[in-house]
Specification:
The protein is of the alpha/beta class and 266 residues long. Helix content is 38%, strand content 24%. Strand 7, helix 7 and strand 8 form a beta-alpha-beta unit.
């Protein structure tokens, strides 16, 4: 269970009193929560609850109005995206963001960019140390491709793959960064039942095999309850619940927020 103090050694990530405003609109209002190292944690809530805004603050796409992100015990008023990526926070997006004309292998290789030590000149020349480095990175990418069971698609342009397989390639690109924290923004949106089962399996295997801490947004409550160690619930930018799946499922505020939305509440 995550400890309440943001700098507790069990927590790899914590959000402290975070508020995000866009002009006169408050997207997130004074939200705090912690994520324990190695846990799978969900952020859920009705549409417009502030879920993606929260992910965007954690990895630096948005700068919070007030509050701080704590990563590895260090408080940061905001995180720049390139620093987040370099320091071990990777993410996938709600809408697939792949290079559709490039192969599966080459798309996942782009996740290794920050790991490459040789400069652009060496990479363009493709001689000596640059070749050795690229071979090492390609071996790592091949391991990820095998782990995700897409070896037969390694040279296929990703634009020719099914939606579910493209989501898996995007997961592979994030894993290529060897993240300590993996942020997944609706990793199962638009998938059929079979594709969802496959993605659930891979999320669990990423956690078990790599020890990666995972924070994900998902609308399918069955998936959320099955995967999560802990769940944070947002509603109109406010945190209304934070607990285990059993605790959240029985929380009256959560029930009202979801029932209100499903019956036409806004």
């Amino acid at each position: 269970m995550p400890q309440q103090h943001p700098d507790h050694p069990e927590n790899v990530l914590a959000v402290q009193n975070l508020t995000l405003r866009f002009g006169g609109i408050t997207a997130i209002s004074d939200v705090s929560f912690a994520v324990a190292r190695g846990h799978i944690q969900a952020i859920i809530g009705p549409n417009g609850a502030g879920k993606t805004s929260m992910i965007n603050c954690i990895n630096g796409f948005y700068r919070p109005t007030t509050g701080a992100i704590h990563f590895r015990g260090e408080a940061r008023p905001f995180m720049r995206p390139y620093r987040a990526a370099a320091e071990g926070i990777a993410r996938t997006f709600q809408n697939i963001a792949l290079f559709k004309g490039m192969s599966t292998l080459d798309n996942i290789m782009t996740g290794r960019t920050l790991k490459m030590k040789r400069g652009l000149g060496w990479q363009l020349l493709r001689v000596g140390p640059a070749i050795a480095e690229e071979i090492a990175h390609r071996e790592r990418v091949e391991e990820i491709i095998e782990f995700l069971e897409i070896s037969h698609l390694r040279l296929h342009p990703v634009g020719t793959l099914s939606y579910g397989l493209q989501k898996r390639v995007e997961l592979g690109r994030a894993l290529a960064m060897e993240p300590e924290v993996l942020l997944l923004d609706e990793p199962m949106a638009g998938m059929n039942a079979g594709e969802k089962l496959e993605m659930c399996r891979f999320i669990l295997e990423v956690s078990a095999h790599f020890g990666t801490t995972i924070v994900f947004i998902e609308h399918d409550l069955g998936v959320v309850m099955d995967l999560s160690d802990r769940i944070v619930v947002l509603d109109h930018g406010h945190k209304i619940a934070d607990g285990t799946p059993a605790e959240v499922k029985s929380d009256q505020r959560v029930i009202e927020a979801y029932i209100g939305t499903r019956h036409g509440g806004h």
